Amino acid sequence: MKHPERYRDQKVVVLGLAKSGVQVAKVLHQAGAVVIVNDRKERDQCPEASELEALGISVVCGGHPDDLIDAQVALVVKNPGIPYSVPPVQRAIGLQIPVVTEVEVAYHLCRAPIIGITGSNGKTTTTTWVGQILQAAGMSPIIAGNIGIPLTEASQEATEEQWMVAELSSFQLKGTEDFRPRIACLTNVTETHLDYHGGMDDYVASKARLFRNQTAEDTAVLNWDDPVCRGLVPYIKARVLPFSMNETLREGVYVSPPYIPGTEDQLERTIVYTDDKGFTHEIIRVENIGIPGRFNVENALAASCIAIAAGAQPSQLEGPLSSFRGVEHRLEYVRETDGIVYYNNSKATNAKATSMALSSFTQPIVLIAGGLDRGTDYDELVPFLQGKVKAAVLLGQTKDKLADAAQKAGINTVVLVDNGEDAAHTLTLAVQKASGLAEAGDIVLLSPACASWDMFPSYEVRGRIFKEAVHNL
Q1: Residues 72, 76, 82, 87: what is their CA dihedral angle, to the nearest 10 degrees?
Q2: How far is the C-alpha of 203 from the C-alpha of 197, rounded, in Å?
Q3: Angle CA(133)–CA(139)–CA(140) in degrees, nearest 5?
Q4: Where is the signal peptide (predicted)?
């Protein structure tokens, strides 16, 4: 550990008994803090409580007591998903007690330099890809954060010779103060999680905290094609290393020749890197990248940029870029049967992600979509539905909104699946209907454009039920 002494004898309240909360409570206790863990769930719904109490950690379940936060509390560590409006967080803010997420604690304990990766879309694929590239280059990376193991757990064993590669959400980054990654990457920014952040300003500001404490010794990797990313440049003190699909960069990683309207599928393209001395290095032909989709070319650019900033040689990138087969629930190939190919893209929890998935295929698509209604319309999907989607099977709270977008796109076959009490049965029925509408040569694509929480506890559960239904056809 790097600075465990900063927590010794400090009174710390941990809000939330999820995986990261349990781990950060253990780590803080080990560092000598006086830890109290609080969860609003009843005790019989908190199986982790007994384990923590056996270590001497106080656990309070069944609500948030009025006296939980007092002037003696030095720090509140909250689960990223807990809103800032809950009473204990508001009381801590009123008492000027720092409220952070486990990312902040992990930063102070981790000996390894940190690569922080965030973005509205692509961060999991990029994080996983970076890990594979660095592993192939002999750098022994650790993958953690919003993917895999909690950052505090990974930080305990990390050494100065390794890289900590961390996927970070806006929820996690909003709760940071001193956090300073050696390499920070923002893949893109689009409207999402606005119910949590209250608007785009807070969402963008939370993402931008990734760069806030960086210095000229650090590297900021930015999507040069994204106006929000590019707009952050004047506020970043680190060396900026951009990547682009659409521009030839003086320094950075880009596609050559660039993508220009009307030439998307007409030219052979290569990912190249131009270094700070002006020398250009070919990395890989775009057609040889291991996973389909133009947005995965963008993820490959981001991963290449990060790996080069971490010390990998451009010549070391081609192998892992070509052998990578993607991440579960992210345009994941499921099976082919009767000439119909099924893809699981359950991680597409916003319209932008679904648009990107639709753009990945030239075959006719039967789209399964719908989920939690966050109060937005889906008009931005219309140009991506047109000429791509032959039929749509819609479910969840947003099925009527998506049906309206499908009608605007001129899709003649739209099937609405009523939400029954059994969500798994509802999705299975949607798969069966989609299969009946598809023909040999078609794609059946689950790409919901919505979060899963109206029907499923997570997008992972949704995706696995979809895959099970496909295999049972």
Answers
A1: 20
A2: 6
A3: 95
A4: none
pLDDT tens string 249-299: 999 999 999 988 666 565 789 999 999 999 999 999 999 999 888 889 999
CA–CA dist 104, 100 (Å, integer): 6
18 — phi, psi (to 5°)? -75, 180
Tokens 């590669």 -> residue: 165
**Residues 321, 327, 330, 331, CA torsion sign:** positive
Please compute Rg for the chain using Cα positions. 23
Closest CA to 177 of 204, 213, 123, 222: 213
Beta-bridge mates of residue 244: 254
Q: Rounded to the nearest 10 degrees, how much is the dihedral formed by the CA atoms of 390, 391, 396, 399?
A: 80
Q: Point out which residues pair with 242 in neighbouring strands.
A: 222
The percent helix, strand, coil of the chain (3-state, each to 5) is 35, 20, 45
Regarding beta strands 252-256 and 164-167, do their DSSP bridges make them parallel or antiparallel, or are they unpaired?
Answer: unpaired
Mean pLDDT, rounded, for 64-80: 95
Query: Residue 192: pLDDT above 80?
Result: no
Hey, is 417 helix, strand or coil? coil
Helix (H, G, I), strand (E, B) or coil at 43: helix
21 annotated as belonging to a binding site for a ligand: no
122 is in an annotated binding site: yes
Q: Of 2, 35, 22, which is closest to residue 155 (Cα–Cα)? A: 2
Q: Which amino acid is at 4?
A: P
The verdict on whether residue 124 carries a ligand-binding annotation is yes
Quick check: 1 pLDDT over 60? no
What tokens were used for 372? 């939690």
Residue 311's CB is within 10 A of a number of other CB atoms, namely 11
Nearest Cα neighbor of 413 from 451, 445, 378, 365 is: 365
81 carries a ligand binding annotation: no
In the chain the domains, ranked by start, together with CATH numbers, are 10-100 (3.40.50.720), 104-323 (3.40.1190.10), 332-471 (3.90.190.20)
In which residue are the tokens 């990390």 written? 158
How big is the CA angle at 384 (ends 426 and 471), to the nearest 5 degrees?
A: 35
Peptide bond connecting 448 to the previous residue in cis, omega within 30 degrees of 0: no
* pLDDT (0 to 100) of residue 419: 87
Buried b / exposed e over 47-59, threshold 16 CB at 10 Å, is ebbeebeeeebeb
Interatomic CA distance for residues 353 and 467, integer angstroms: 19
Give the Cα separation of 463 and 450 in Å (integer).
13
Q: Is 123 assigned to a binding site? A: yes
